Every structure is written in structure tokens, then in C-alpha cells.
Amino acid sequence: MTGPAAVQCTGVSHSFGPTRAVDGVDLEIHPGDVFGLLGPNGAGKTTTLRMITTLLPVAAGRITVFGVDVARRRMAVRRLIGYVPQQLSADGALTGRENVALFARLFDVPRARRAQQVRGALELVGLERDADRTAKTYSGGMIRRLELAQALVSSPRLLVLDEPTIGLDPVARSSVWDRVTEIRAATGMTVLVTTHYMDEAEQYCDRVALMHAGRIRALGTPAELEAGLGPGSTLDDVFRAVTGDRLDSDEGGIRSVRATRRTARRLG
Ligand SMILES: Nc1ncnc2c1ncn2[C@@H]1O[C@H](COP(=O)(O)OP(=O)(O)OP(=O)(O)O)[C@@H](O)[C@H]1O
Ligand SMILES: [Mg+2]
């Protein structure tokens, strides 16, 4: 590999009071990869992402994004990153276009280029024809694609997506992933995504890290991890082998319902 890693985490930790949410994480993401951070509820995925995106201080260890130190050069790192948080960020009272334009202003896209960048981002996610309807009339999948457009409007080098497909039906899930794949191919962007859907990670991620109780338990391509365990293994088997735990618990269902309710509340 030439040049710096897209993301490099060395001995990164973070505690909330007595809870050690992230506990000595080492991680390297190669430029241009779609990298999946996988783990069950409470594994520490969101906390890790929030440190990488400068929203939480790095309590211990070091993180760089394309060689830039996250703790020392926060604003420079922010200009490299587009972030779609786990909680919804679209405003139901605004149109799709207005939502994306708001992010263009927030992220300092030069005024002269704003309208064009907004249009480009909406096209990348396939929302150009629905851009002038209010977001409260969008389906869950369209909302997720709108949030993707918000993160893309500043042309980031690193796109960070926290559970982009939670609460979506299978068709909407694959449409979000198809967009991510197309965007990566068109722009060469690096993508960091969390999910607890093993099948999605197997299909769409170049490399994955399996996280449990604040620690990375396995790291590699899905094929490498599966081959390490033996013929016919799935990522879910690997996860169980390294943690003694199941990844796809019933909680996913509960969370899906919660996420859907939250969408309804926010946009209704
Ligand atoms: N703001 C906070 N205050 C206190 N504890 C927190 C806070 N945020 C996270 N935690 C705790 O830190 C741990 C890791 O949480 P985190 O949200 O990073 O997990 P996650 O892997 O993203 O889980 P999920 O799949 O549910 O989104 C959990 O035990 C959680 O309860
Ligand atoms: Mg989370």
C-alpha cells in the first residue's frame, strides 16, 4: 500500500464512567475499501465511529485519518469525512433538496458550487426526481438514501455510515448497498460501515472487523476469516467461535421496530 491508511487506530480506548465501551482497539482501513465494523448491541461500534469522526475525544491511543491526527487536527479531519449517524438526521419538514443544501452550507461547500454539488449528491443516491417533495413523504429507504446524499455533498474522502440499513426491508437494504457500491466505484471513496447483518457484510465489505465488548476479536476479508475456521463456515460462525456468543440475536428485531418508530416520530 502506498500513502497513509484511510483510518489507523492504535490502542484506542474510551470509557463512560465505569463502562469500558472501547478497550484497546487496533484497526487499519485501506484507502478505497468498504470496511465493515461488525458486532452486537453495545459492542462499542458507535463509540469507535464517534472518535474517528472527532465527535468524541480519543481518551487513550491514537487515531489518524489519511495520516491526519484526529486529536490534534479536528477541523482538518472533519473536512475529509462524511458521516451518517445511527440516529436520523433528515428533517421531515424540508424537501430532499433543502435537506442536502443545509449540509452543503454546514460543511462549507463554496457557494458557487453548492447547487451543482447538491444536484450531484441527489443523483448519486437516485433521488433527483423526488428532490422537491418534503422528506416526511419519503419511505424509510428513501430517507436513508437522503442521509447518504447529505454526507456525500461535501465530496468526502471517507464516508462513515452507522447502521445504514437498520429497520429497512430487504429490497430497501439492497438498494442502499447498491448505491454505496456505485458511489465507491464512481469516486474511489473509502467507506466505513457498521452493521450487525452478517450477510450484508459478506456480500458488500472488502474487509471486516468483528467487535465484542469493546475489543476487536477478528480482522480480515470475510473469505479469510471463514477459511480460518474451516470449510463451509459463515461469518456468523466465526463470530461465535471468537466470542462464544451469537451475533444475530433477537434484539435486532426489537431494534428494527424501535428504529422504525423513531422514523415515524421524527418525520410524522
Ligand atoms: N453516552 C453514553 N453514556 C454512557 N454509556 C454509553 C454512552 N454511549 C454508549 N455507552 C455504552 O457504551 C457501550 C458501547 O456502546 P456503543 O453505542 O458504542 O455500542 P454499539 O456497538 O454501537 O451498539 P448498537 O449496536 O446498539 O448501536 C455500551 O455499553 C453503551 O451502553
Ligand atoms: Mg451503535
From TrEMBL:
Q: Name one GO molecular function term.
A: ATP binding
Membrane topology note? Peripheral membrane protein
One GO biological process term is: response to antibiotic
Keywords, comma-separated and alphabetical? Antibiotic resistance, ATP-binding, Nucleotide-binding, Transport
Write one Pfam family the protein is assigned to: ABC_tran
SUPFAM superfamilies in UniProt? P-loop containing nucleoside triphosphate hydrolases
Q: Name one GO cellular component term.
A: plasma membrane
Query: Origin organism of this chain?
Result: Amycolatopsis australiensis
Query: Residues in domain ABC transporter?
Result: 7-238
What is the similarity comment for this entry? Belongs to the ABC transporter superfamily.
- Is ATP-binding given among the entry's keywords? yes
Keyword Transport recorded:
yes
Domain of life here?
Bacteria
User: What compartments host this protein?
Assistant: Cell membrane
Q: What is its main location?
A: membrane
Q: What is this protein called?
A: ABC-2 type transport system ATP-binding protein
InterPro entries named in the record: AAA+_ATPase, ABC_transporter-like_ATP-bd, ABC_transporter-like_CS, ABC_transporter_ATP-binding, P-loop_NTPase
